[in-house]
Amino acid sequence: MTDQTAPRRRAGGRKSRHQHRATGAPNPAPPGQRGGQYRPLSEAQIVRIYDTALRLLSDLGMGEVPARLAGDLLRAGAEARGDRVVFHRALVEDAIAGAAKRFWLHGIDPDRSIEVGGEAVHFGTGGAAVQTLDIETRLYRPSTLQDLHDFTRLQDRLPNVSWFTRCCVATDVPEVFDLDINTAYALVRNTTKPIATSFALAEHVAPIVGMLDIVAGGQGRFAERPFMKAHISPVISPLRYGEDAVDVVYACIDHKIPVSCITAAQSGATAPAPLAGFLAMSLAETLASLVMVHAIQPGYPMVFSNWPLVIDLRTGAFAGGGGEVAVMNAASAQLSNWLGLPSGVASSMTDAKAIDAQYGAEKGIAALAAGLAGGNLIYESSGMTASLLGASFEGFVLDNEMLGTVYRALRGVEVTDETLGFDTICDVVRGEGHFLGAGQTQDAMERDYLYPRLADRQDPRTWAERGALTAWDRARDAVRAILDEHHPDHLSHAQDSAIRSTFPILL
């Protein structure tokens, strides 16, 4: 190398780069990036799907409508037709027009609150796994209440998971009331992010709100700034309501809990196998949830959560991974956004049991498709395995990093005079012949590049010398470090004592 081509060191440049590698540069693409770049449906296709959904609601309507809901729907303009209730186009479009288009999901910590709606994309969790991938044996076992506490405090340290829904069911808690109470307690004790849960029965809502009032600072305080939302499936495919879930909707609205009304039909089983017909019917069902909420309380905060799920038609088993899942949930997000409604879809529901290539491919493809399509809240995106039957600690930390990559892809490329850098290019070509010492390189390092903490970028020799660790190995070490160190104390002693003296807290 001649003197003319040797790089010139800038004072502090190398030291600064080493410091950034050690501490990590500022996150160049935090949650909330803009989606909508991927449009699997054309405008004409959207209109045909939407028109078919409206025809289904006006011609077939909904069956098994609970009496209380039927009264509210009829007063809102629905029509009874035999044993079904039908919704004319005007009623559905009134519900769409009057729906809450943007609202806040509050965190217990206000700085962790997120706004739902518009073009912002947030990945979070979901699921009701009954098995946990054990970090020691790397085999599945029944999920426990301790697992739920550990999952909650683990994700509390993962910045790319915007909100936390209980990801597993504590199978060691047999009583449904105790299960709902202890699930809510695990969430408020171990994270200050926005949280979500489900309620087995409507009568469980009021006691849990009592617990949330203690956390919020007094009776009625939770309703002033609700930091928990409810996941409810009030529609049972095909095209009928579920009475218990509808009762939960009423109870949540009474107690100011935002709702995520989830439609989860499955192709070829509870929904048509052709993808277009599936999208039309599942859209009709999610619109039926919206009309229900509109009839109870117009404009109430509801996430329009249309999750098209797929079964393997060869076996009848649920399939969480695959191109159909990715494109269908992306199309669902596009449809919801076209209607201007806060969209909820699912992604990363891998069928893989181990942390392997199938796991990474199925999760990454589905998450990127849903994010690029503009899903406002993307559920199931962290930690879920085995077609939603399992949850994995290592999966959580790996998915957090994968989601950071998705956010970076969503951010795209900013084209300005500064980022084009015409003068810098000219100076380098005429001068040193490289960009290592250029001021724009240091600026771009902090602004444009996301540096993984778990993905391996070593050369093969160094990788071998350091133990030839797999992603699973590195993730396990990261999980152990967080769980050994992070023991949240989000409840004061007085709050915890008040909760324990009132409710059957088991841990």
How is the secondary structure organized here?
Blueprint: H1 13-23, H2 43-59, E1 62-63, H3 67-76, E2 79-81, E3 84-86, H4 89-98, E4 103-105, E5 114-116, E6 122-123, E7 131-133, E8 140-142, H5 145-155, E9 164-165, H6 176-190, E10 195-197, H7 205-216, H8 221-224, E11 228-232, E12 235-236, E13 240-241, H9 243-254, E14 259-263, H10 275-296, E15 302-306, E16 310-312, E17 317-319, H11 323-339, E18 343-346, H12 357-373, E19 377-379, E20 384-385, E21 390-392, H13 393-411, H14 417-420, H15 422-430, H16 439-447, H17 460-465, H18 471-485, H19 493-502
Parallel strand pairs: 6-19, 7-21, 9-10, 10-11, 11-14, 14-15, 15-18, 18-19
Antiparallel strand pairs: 1-3, 2-3, 4-5, 7-8, 12-13, 16-17, 20-21
Highlighted features:
disordered N terminus; eight-stranded parallel sheet; 507 residues; alpha/beta; 19 helices; four-stranded mixed sheet; 13% strand; 2 domains; TIM Barrel
